[in-house]
Amino acid sequence: MSDISQVIYTPPQAAQSAMEAVERTEKNQMRAIKLHLPEIKDYFAPAMAGQLISIIAQTSNYKSSFMRQWARDIAQQLMDEERDNESIIYVSVEEVIEEQIYQEVAAISNENAGRLAHGSVNDWDALRKAAIMVGQIPIYRIGESLGRAEVFAHLHLSNIMEAIRALVGGDVTGNKITPAAIFVDYLQALPFDPEFQGKQDRRLQVRSDIYKLRKMSILFDCPVIVGVQAKQNLQGAPSASFRIPGIYDGEESSSIGQRSDRIIQLWMPKMTSSLGTAIEQGNYSFVVTEDMLWIKIGKQRGGYPSGKAWMCKIDHNNGIIVPQEINRISLSNVV
After folding, report:
1. Per-residue model confidence (pLDDT) at position 182
2. Cα–Cα distance measured from residue 205 to residue 158, given in angstroms and rounded to the nearest whole number
């Protein structure tokens, strides 16, 4: 930093900065991002500009699908509220663009996303109509494509931020884009960033990237939602059978738990226990099913409550998540 005085605030300056922040928040209340799941949405405080939300889960525990549904729900919120100048920006370094759209089309049509990926279509007319609808959903995507195989974009975080700047500034479409939220799937899959000044150490790179993602939420004036891979050996899970990751179970760096404003933890019991297994936790028990997903709000800054978990059901055909009746029972004492 060329002028170190810029990080020093006198008491009047600090007070003025706080008042300006309150004014910005008041003006931006209509831009808050909700979690559109029944009952959970009443517990999860709306996410505001400048906040970083981490979605923590182990491999194959529905992290990407959860993020896709949330992005789709926010996009629908934008359309319902006629916020025509705002859009979602969705970055994936794991799935090509086509794979993402299979999920979106399946959520609208009666097709199965897995079968679409293998070229199996039941109703082409319904599929085309669904594709037209997906084309009207305000989600801009950054990633690689099967249709542009000759293009290789090294999507480290500096390049991703440059792509977002180009999109927001109007260099891509000719019109400036106002991001309502930015999704990044996922943190540990991001390639090494040549702008990172340290040695090529994965732990240090992840730490640097989580700081950059938080800066991104301020720079682009919107919440940033990032997928986070959980460790294989969880340290924060309540027990050997109840395997919701803890907020510090993000792989590679404890900075994930420290720097995130909100943390949502996911767990699919079928990934750690056989179907039909009865799992007990404290005075509560349940039986593992194919479509079961546990969601926990593990952290919320700003004085909001946290620590509650819900058992949910997944409709695998369209990726829709539905909280079950057990969501009325708080597991904060055991989770």
Report:
1. 98
2. 12
For CA atoms 237, 238, 244, 247, the dihedral sign is negative
**Integer angstrom CA distances of residue 35 from 178, 237, 246, 295, 330:** 20, 24, 20, 12, 18
Domain coverage including residue 202 = 34-328
User: Measured between alpha carbons, how far is 190 from 137 in angstroms, rounded to an integer?
Assistant: 26
Q: Does 277 reside within a domain?
A: yes
- CB-CB contact of 244 with 267 (8 Å): yes
- 157-194 as b/e, with b when 16 or more CB fall inside 10 Å? bebbbebbeebbeeeeeeeebebbbbbbbbbbebeebe
Q: How many distinct helices (H) and strands (E) make up the chain?
A: 9, 11
How far apart CA 136 and CA 129 sit, in angstroms, is: 11
> How many Cβ atoms are within 10 Å of 317's Cβ, its own excluded?
14
Specify the residue for token string 């008042």.
Answer: 19
Q: Is residue 25 part of a domain?
A: no
Residues in the chain: 335
Determine how many CB atoms are found less than 10 A away from the CB of residue 56: 34
Rg of the chain on CA atoms, in Å: 21
157-169 helix and 202-219 helix, angle to the nearest 10 degrees: 20
pTM across the whole model: 0.88
Count of the separate structural domains present in the chain: 1
Tokens at 179, concatenated: 């991001």
Instruction: Give the residue-averaged pLDDT of 52-81.
Output: 93
The pLDDT value recorded for residue 152 is 60
